[in-house]
Amino acid sequence: MQGETPPADAPAAETTPVEQAWSLAEDAPEESSVAAAEGIREAVSSQNETVGSLLDTLDAVALSLGDMRISLFDIVIVAAILFGVIFFAWFASRLARRGVRRFTKLDETQQLLAEKILTIVVWSAAFFLGIDLLGIDLTALAVFSGAFGLAIGFGLQKTFGNLIAGIILLMDKSIKPSDVIAVTDMAGNETFGQIRKIGVRAVSITTRDQREYLIPNENLMINQVENWSYSSKNVRMQVLVGVSYEADMHLAEELMLEAAKSCERVLKAPPPTVWMSEYGDNSVNFTIHCWIRDPEDGVGNVRSAVLKKLWWLFKEHGVEIPFPQRDIHIRSSDQLERWFGTMAGQKSEPRD
């Protein structure tokens, strides 16, 4: 029929574009694995040919791994971006902390909480900024999100738990810097210490003997904590004293109160009190109750000052401080009598 195209010409017409596209794909230059490196190199080359040739030389030294090409210039750019991002995050977080500290309306705990939140925000922003500058496609990381979630769930569970626990402790103000809490060492001995710092992972507590305990934040959340300065820094302490049964009890009580009131760190209000606690084996036992407002400066030194003053007051007024006394009753026996007889005979013999 007229007007029809011969069948032999159709395959020839289709082959030419395919071969042309294949040849173009083979001649396409390899792109750098770092998107920012290619843009920087082109921008610098257009401005200065000498520097551009130097960058081309660095870019020529490359290592190809499959479809990935990593040049010496890429490594330099990656190192510069990482250094710049880390420096930016450090400087921005430090600037944010200074800005928070200027807000006088916030107390110390609120300032610390704001600093931690701002630090997390700044470093998160720096992380995504670095990914964007390096040209990493976030959609490519979606494949590894499941494995990354499992790693956080199993490997970093305690770390993230302590981080969240520290933020919660600062939000509810149950434990804050400068609080005095009771701690227990590895031997089971209980002592007290002052909170110096609430960190991302643990709370730093310093005792009177300058031992520093690092207690994980999560432990302070789930365990019972004895906080001496939660609602008030006033702490009542006890001083145990024993006097003789022959002593004047009214005079002894007055001297105990005088000794407690003479200590500078003992508060005037509430005033010290003296209680008779028990009739002991060798003494009548009393307990002096006195209040202090600075337990972080020590409790034992206040007890020592009261006892020293009371010692001299008792000496001055003739109040006896008893000591244990025991009466020994020896039962008679034949062996004991023979032993006494032998000892007496040895003493009666004249010495040469």
TrEMBL record:
Residues 1-21 are annotated as: Disordered. It holds the Pfam family MS_channel_3rd. Residues 116-157 form the Mechanosensitive ion channel transmembrane helices 2/3 domain. It is found in: Cell membrane. Residues 1-19 have a biased composition (Low complexity). The keyword Cell membrane applies. One of its GO terms (molecular function) is mechanosensitive monoatomic ion channel activity. This is Mechanosensitive ion channel.
